[in-house]
Write a structure and sequence with these properties.
The complex is a heterodimer. Chain A is an all-alpha fold. In chain A, 46% of the residues lie in helices and 2% in strands. In chain A, a hairpin with a 5-residue loop joins strand 1 and strand 2. The longest helix of chain A has 28 residues. Chain B has 5 helices and 5 strands; from the N terminus they run H-E-E-H-E-E-E-H-H-H. Chain B is an alpha+beta fold. A 5-stranded antiparallel sheet of chain B has the order 2-1-5-4-3, sandwiched between helices. The chains are: A mainly alpha, B alpha+beta. At the A-B interface, helix 4 of A face strand 2 and helix 2 of B.
């Protein structure tokens, strides 16, 4: 028991909880009401030590199981408290911690630059039409024009091809869309 | 040195046309336009939380340390620590120095860092995330969570 300035007494268990305040009566934690001053470990558990729950003899399994469960709950609660404290602590020294290796940094920068280049690249040229360079254009325009028979035959062939393409039809043998349920709206 | 200063603000093209305008085919030239806009901006870097730059432009007046990996990567840690102040998530951090000022924006998963002269208009710098929003939206998919 430790004497405090106000004259009260504080138990080691209360101090372990992080509370340095004293209470006039230290019996509140034993009354069954759990508060911030309630000890995580009971007196019996502190005296017997933190033994492994798996090594208990079968004859004493019933009372020891309850102690092990209480120990597990206490450890879980303690882990939760530690986790919350670690998440809320402001650690300024963490700024100086190096995060990446040099080769990882170079590799990632290379990936970003290639992705940015793809993003900024001009659209690919259209395959159907291409600009003819001026010397070739001059030579093509200076040649004699095509004969009218050739032009007529090419136009007839193109018309017959167009009719054949337009005559293509799809005749499904069975329903291609099986409705699983009611669908509203249009598909993307 | 290659960076032309312009006295007219008309050269600042619309943010939505930075990839469509034939005169400015890429993001780097668009950011260089902002450097030339006589706002005191000395450097702009768009990077991930580890300090790897996606695109970075700077003038000779920009200190090299402000564009380095160590300085850029510190923002993510500072921002995470600042989020523990019970004021929700951290969005921007302003660093004021005697000769420069640095504004960093947290736009997960990218981070925007703007370095400017100490005499630059901080209000203009704080609105650059809105100005560069179309560019940032195009660059955000490039950053995968590492």
């Amino acid at each position: 028991m430790i004497k405090t300035e106000s004259g009260g007494e504080a138990t080691l268990a209360a101090l372990a909880m992080g509370c340095c305040c004293s209470t006039e009566s230290s019996d509140g934690s034993d009354a069954g009401d759990t508060n911030e001053r309630t000890a995580l470990l009971s007196e019996q558990q502190r005296l017997t030590g933190s033994g492994e729950s798996g090594a208990d003899p079968p004859a004493e399994a019933a009372p020891r199981a309850g102690d092990a469960r209480a120990r597990g709950d206490g450890e879980t609660l303690l882990d939760g408290i530690l986790h919350d404290m670690a998440a809320s602590v402001i650690d300024v020294a963490a700024v100086d911690t190096p995060n990446m290796e040099q080769h990882d940094y170079v590799e990632r920068c290379r990936q970003y630059s290639s992705a940015l280049a793809r993003l900024s690249a001009p659209p690919p040229p259209a395959l159907a039409f291409q600009d003819v360079p001026p010397p070739l254009a001059q030579r093509l325009l200076s040649e004699p024009p095509a004969r009218p028979d050739d032009v007529r035959r090419a136009r007839q062939t193109a018309e017959r091809l167009l009719e054949a393409v337009q005559a293509i039809q799809v005749t499904p043998g069975e329903s291609l869309v099986i409705p699983f349920g009611q669908t509203t709206g249009s598909e993307p | 040195m290659g960076i032309r200063r312009s006295n007219t603000s008309s050269e600042l093209t619309s943010p939505a046309r930075f990839l469509v305008d034939r005169n400015q085919p890429d993001a780097k030239k668009y950011l260089e336009n902002i450097l030339n806009g006589d706002h005191g901006v000395e450097g702009i870097a768009i990077h991930d939380k580890d300090g790897c730059c996606i695109v970075k432009v700077s003038t000779p007046a920009c200190p090299e340390s402000a564009m380095g990996v160590k300085y850029l990567s510190a923002f993510s840690v500072l921002s995470d620590q600042a989020a523990k102040m019970n004021m929700e998530k951290n969005k921007k951090i302003f660093h004021m120095y005697s000769k420069h000022q640095v504004v960093q924006f947290r736009l997960d998963p990218v981070i925007l860092t703007v370095v400017a002269a100490a005499s630059a208009n901080t209000g203009y710098l704080s609105s650059l995330d809105v100005t560069l929003e179309p560019l940032l939206q195009r660059l955000q998919p490039l950053v995968r969570p590492h």
